[in-house]
Each structure stands twice: as structure tokens, then as C-alpha cells.
């Protein structure tokens, strides 16, 4: 499968990943290699990765605790101390093996350690393969507020080996699927249509879908790396989705929602808003709602939950001059950004979602 060329780096697939490492991670280029994994990927993915990683450069392993709750500056401090104690210098390489939490945090650690060292992302979850590891966004959460601290900095390469998906539970696979659905909704109706019937999906089909998702995101990011315009459409479903994810993280009575599960809800809500603002037809909205809820079910919200989520949304990092702007759909396959939305319409969207 041909590598996808991005701005300053390439995305490689399957066997080509390890050929890239063999040819590029050499003693002439790097003084030492550090591999960052969390407690899950360290056990499930790292043995396979290291078995195929042929290099003469010394390798050290860094392990962090798994889970979004650990995507914090405190975890970064621990990683920076570990790198220092193990002799990392500006010619060291950090390879992040894991899901979006690992690639986000690891990219930020590398981008800030000694004012920046090289890093490579090896996404092991479907979500990270199609979204988190592509596009140069790195960072951590601030409390329960998502991705409040970070930088945009591209990796040396992204290495996607779909065999790591065999280690994922079903809910993690669905979490990644949400971002793939988003790619179809915002800019490729034909791609969206491929998800209308997943009953005959094969492994080869999944690889092709992943490849297409990476191309879609890469095409958008390459035109607007720093998110001044077009790249904002990738935030469809995220304005409310991130607030929902944060709320479920901070409420001890709530069961934690995975990122994609929260974004799926956000996409239904923001599709309803699109419909009520005459950007989306009723048939289009109904199709979106039925497809997403058939895959993810419906999550219950009390009135107090909705008000708290709207309050959290006001801290969204995408807000400008005190106003939160939304990405909405102008038909399936096209998105518009910087759309203001009043709170009463958001409440109506929740009520329709629950109805």
C-alpha cells in the first residue's frame, strides 16, 4: 500500500512501517531511541513492535499509566524526568506506540523536551490510526478540559500497522469508527455511504476505509496546518462531544465515555442543529441519527447534565472572543464552520436526541 505524503512526513502502512524504521533509525542519525507505551500497549503491542524493529541504536522503554485520566502535564513531567535520567539528548528519538492518548502526550513530550526532539507515531487503536496520530496536534488535558495545553508539531513519520487492531475490544473499535463517519459527513458523501451497511465488512475493506480516512484528513490538514480556516471542519461533533466527554470524566457517578462515543453523540446533536438552521434536510438528519444511534445506542442525559455540559462547552479551546463557534453540515458531505448557536437550540438538540 502506497505511503501517503503529508506536510513534512509520510504515513506508512503494514510491512512498510518496519522497512522505514530499518532504513531511517540508524546510529548515524540518532543517539538513542525511547519507546513510549501505556500499560495496555506495553503488554499487548510492544512485544510485536520490538520484534520487527531492527536497529543498532540503543532502545529504552518508557511506560505510562493507561487512560484519558492520565493525559496530564504531570505525566509529561514524569516522562521528561525519565528521559533526562536515561540520558536522552537532542539527537534522541521518541517513538509513541499506543492510542490517541499516547500519541498526543508523547508528541507533546518530544516537542518540548530540550526544545524539541524527533518523534514517530505508531498508532495502535483505530481512533489513533484515522485521527489522533495524523495532523501534528499534540497535547494534554487541563483537568477534565480536553487538549487545553499543546502544540502543533509534525512527526518524522506515522506508521500504521492494522494488525494491532486485533488487540482492541469492540468499544474501542467503535470509538475509532466515529471519526471515520465524521470524515464522510464533512467532505465525502460516497465515503459516508459505505458505512450504511457494515454487515459484510472484511479486514481488507477495513484497511481500505482506514486508508481513505487518512487521505481525507491529510488533504484537509495539508491545506491548513494551524487550523485558521478549513481544518476547523474536522471539529464537527467535537464542540459538544468534547464537553460531553469532559463532563463524564469529572462526574464520579457517570461511566466514562470513550472519545468516539462522545463524538458520536456530538455529531447527532450538531446534525440536528444543522437541520434546524436549514442547512440539512430532515431526511439527511434522520439518516445520520439512525446510522449513529444504531451503532452507539442512546446515552441518557438529565436536564442538569445538559446544563452542565453547556457550561463546560463555554471553555472550549475553539471559542473566539468569548463565543463558541460550531462546525455544521450543509448537506451530507459538506461542512461549514464558525457558526454561532444559541443555547436553547442546543437544549432542543439534546431533547430530540433523547426522544
TrEMBL record:
EC primary class: lyase
GO molecular function, one term: nucleotide binding
Domain 3-dehydroquinate synthase C-terminal: 176-319
EC number: 4.2.3.4
SUPFAM superfamilies: Dehydroquinate synthase-like
Limits of the 3-dehydroquinate synthase N-terminal domain: 63-173
Single Gene Ontology BP annotation: aromatic amino acid family biosynthetic process
Names of the cofactor(s): NAD(+); Zn(2+); Co(2+)
The entry's keywords: Cobalt, Lyase, Metal-binding, NAD, Nucleotide-binding, Zinc
Xref: Gene3D superfamilies: 3.40.50.1970, Dehydroquinate synthase-like - alpha domain
Recorded GO CC terms: cytoplasm
InterPro entries: Dehydroquinate_synthase (IPR050071), DHQ_synth_AroB (IPR016037), DHQ_synth_fam (IPR030963), DHQS/DOIS_N (IPR030960), DHQS_C (IPR056179)
Function: Catalyzes the conversion of 3-deoxy-D-arabino-heptulosonate 7-phosphate (DAHP) to dehydroquinate (DHQ).
Protein name stated in the entry: 3-dehydroquinate synthase
Gene name for this UniProt entry: aroB
Amino acid at each position: 500500500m502506497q505511503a501517503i505524503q503529508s506536510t513534512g512526513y509520510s504515513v506508512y502502512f503494514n510491512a512498510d512501517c518496519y522497512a522505514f524504521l530499518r532504513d531511517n533509525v540508524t546510529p548515524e542519525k540518532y543517539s538513542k531511541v525511547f519507546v513510549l507505551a501505556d500499560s495496555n500497549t506495553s503488554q499487548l503491542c510492544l512485544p510485536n513492535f520490538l520484534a520487527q524493529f531492527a536497529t543498532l541504536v540503543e532502545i529504552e522503554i518508557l511506560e505510562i499509566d493507561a487512560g484519558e485520566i492520565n493525559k496530564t502535564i504531570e505525566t509529561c513531567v514524569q516522562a521528561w524526568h525519565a528521559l533526562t535520567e536515561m540520558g536522552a539528548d537532542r539527537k534522541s528519538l521518541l517513538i509513541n506506540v499506543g492510542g490517541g492518548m499516547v500519541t498526543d502526550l508523547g508528541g507533546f513530550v518530544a516537542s518540548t523536551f530540550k526544545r524539541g526532539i524527533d518523534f514517530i507515531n505508531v498508532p495502535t487503536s483505530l481512533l489513533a490510526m484515522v485521527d489522533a496520530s495524523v495532523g501534528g496536534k499534540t497535547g494534554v488535558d487541563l483537568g477534565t478540559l480536553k487538549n487545553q495545553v499543546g502544540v502543533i508539531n509534525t512527526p518524522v513519520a506515522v506508521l500504521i500497522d492494522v494488525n494491532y487492531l486485533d488487540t482492541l475490544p469492540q468499544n474501542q473499535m467503535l470509538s475509532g469508527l466515529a471519526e471515520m463517519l465524521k470524515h464522510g459527513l464533512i467532505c465525502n458523501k460516497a465515503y459516508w455511504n459505505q458505512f450504511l451497511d457494515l454487515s459484510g465488512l472484511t479486514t481488507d475493506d477495513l484497511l481500505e476505509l482506514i486508508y481513505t480516512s487518512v487521505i481525507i484528513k491529510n488533504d484537509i490538514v495539508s491545506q491548513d496546518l494551524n487550523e485558521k480556516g478549513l481544518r476547523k471542519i474536522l471539529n464537527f461533533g467535537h464542540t459538544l462531544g468534547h464537553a460531553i466527554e469532559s463532563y463524564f470524566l469529572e462526574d464520579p457517578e457517570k461511566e466514562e465515555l470513550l472519545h468516539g462515543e462522545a463524538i458520536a453523540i456530538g455529531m447527532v446533536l450538531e446534525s440536528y442543529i444543522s437541520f434546524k438552521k436549514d442547512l440539512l434536510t430532515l431526511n439527511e438528519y434522520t439518516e445520520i441519527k439512525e446510522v449513529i444511534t444504531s451503532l452507539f445506542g442512546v446515552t441518557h442525559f438529565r436536564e442538569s447534565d445538559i446544563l452542565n455540559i453547556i457550561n463546560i462547552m463555554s471553555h472550549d479551546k475553539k471559542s473566539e472572543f468569548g463565543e463558541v463557534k460550531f462546525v455544521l453540515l450543509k448537506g451530507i458531505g459538506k461542512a461549514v464552520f464558525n457558526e454561532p448557536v444559541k443555547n436553547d437550540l442546543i437544549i432542543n438538540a439534546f431533547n430530540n436526541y433523547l426522544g
